[in-house]
């Protein structure tokens, strides 16, 4: 049985909190983003670009087997890591769960202490985009 997003979030928070050093934790998050599917350059269009991010970030979402799958491109490894965390978190879940589940993991891991307020605002923009994509994928 697949975990709900709430269960997944609890598990991820627990797992990441095992890494006591906040810088090391952030480094692991950035490194794990390498596993997130990248957008091809041709898909990095204005329609997919996330407004509100200082760095260039593009997100694409689609349904595969009724579940959301998110891919991204970013011009910075740190940003790719943070956005990748959200893409990995929401991928593999139905659009309704994606729309309604807020990423408490960002605060629980105290990422706001590790990254600039500008980057945190950018992550809020990424969350809005992911929610919007998921709303568009809801069955009618």
Radius of gyration: 14 Å
Main sheet overview: 2 strands, antiparallel
* Number of helical stretches of at least 4 residues: 6
Major sheet: arrangement of strands: 1-2
Structural class from helices and strands? mainly alpha
Average residue-wise pLDDT:
92
The domain count comes to 1
Overall CATH architecture: Alpha-Beta Complex
Number of strands: 2
Short structural summary:
By secondary structure, the chain is mainly alpha-helical. The chain contains 6 helices and 2 strands. It has helices at residues 5-17, 22-32, 77-90, 95-100, 105-108, 117-137; strands at residues 57-64, 67-74.
What is the topological layout?
Blueprint: H1 5-17, H2 22-32, E1 57-64, E2 67-74, H3 77-90, H4 95-100, H5 105-108, H6 117-137
Antiparallel strand pairs: 1-2
Helix pairs in contact: 2-3, 3-6
Structural notes for this entry:
The chain is 49% helix and 11% strand. The protein has helices at residues 5-17, 22-32, 77-90, 95-100, 105-108, 117-137; strands at residues 57-64, 67-74. It has a two-stranded antiparallel ribbon. Strand 1 (57-64) and strand 2 form a beta hairpin. It is globular, with a radius of gyration of 14 Å. The model has no long low-confidence stretch (mean pLDDT 92).
């Amino acid at each position: 049985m697949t975990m709900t997003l709430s269960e997944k979030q609890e598990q991820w928070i627990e797992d990441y909190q095992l890494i006591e050093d906040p810088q090391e934790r952030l480094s692991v998050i950035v490194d794990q983003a390498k596993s997130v599917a990248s957008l091809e350059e041709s898909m990095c269009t204005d329609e997919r670009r996330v407004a509100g991010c200082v760095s260039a970030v593009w997100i694409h979402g689609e349904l595969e087997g009724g579940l959301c799958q998110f891919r991204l491109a970013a011009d910075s490894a740190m940003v790719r890591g943070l956005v990748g965390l959200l893409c990995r978190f929401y991928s593999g879940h139905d659009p309704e769960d994606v729309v309604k589940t807020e990423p408490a993991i960002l605060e629980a891991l105290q990422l706001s202490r590790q990254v600039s307020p500008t980057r945190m605002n950018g992550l809020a923009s990424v969350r809005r985009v992911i929610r919007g994509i998921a709303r568009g994928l809801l069955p009618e």
